[in-house]
Amino acid sequence: MERPEATAAPLPPAAPRLQRLKKRREFLRAAARGKRAARPGLVLQALPVAEPSLRLGFTVTKKIGNAVVRNRARRRLKEAARLTLPAMALYGWDLVLIGRDATAERPFPLLIEDLRAALRQAGVAS
User: Fold this and answer.
1) What is the predicted pLDDT for the residue at 126?
2) Residue 26: what pLDDT?
3) N or C: which end of the chain has fewer CB within 10 A?
4) Are 49 and 56 in contact (CB under 8 A)?
5) Cβ atoms of residues 87 and 116 within 8 Å
6) pLDDT at position 41
7) Using alpha carbons only, what angle is made at residue 26 by residues 17 and 45, rounded to the nearest 5 degrees?
8) d(CA 107, CA 123)
9) What are the pLDDT digits (tens) for 81-95?
């Protein structure tokens, strides 16, 4: 018996992968010199940099909960950033997203709106 050929639509081009902040000193520099914006679902630290790139860092403190809760909050922040930031075409910033108590349980559309509002509040996006 022959299988019919699947005619899949071509995939849309993938968004460029966002660069990551990984070193402690990069996080500390954003905290010391950057602008802060707090929303119910997250805290944003934004530092303008000379390089024409967008670098992201994610952190969730142990105050939030055990490893399962912290990882869930971090995954949700990463997904919100992945869906929101490439469309905004932001360059020349180091951004740190910090999870809060509400991050893991906040409805996802509200978390995305928190990110957009924090970017506006910090002066990163208009």
Assistant:
1) 74
2) 93
3) N
4) no
5) no
6) 92
7) 80
8) 25
9) 999 988 887 888 999
| Residue 34 to residue 26: CA distance in whole angstroms | 11
Q: What is the pLDDT of residue 10?
A: 57
H or E, element range at 46: strand 42-48
Which pair of structure tokens corresponds to residue 97? 């997203």
Q: In what order do the strands lie in the sheet with 19-20?
A: 19-20, 54-59, 93-99, 42-48, 35-38
Query: Token digits for 67?
Result: 């490893």
Please report where in the chains the tokens 């902040």 appear, as a residue.
Answer: 21
14-23: b (≥16 Cβ within 10 Å) or e:
eeeeeeebee
Structure tokens at 33: 């010199």
CA gap 79, 84 in Å, rounded: 8
Helices (H), ranges, the chain? 24-33, 67-88, 108-121
Pairing state between β 35-38 and 93-99: unpaired
Residues of the chain with pLDDT under 70: 1-17
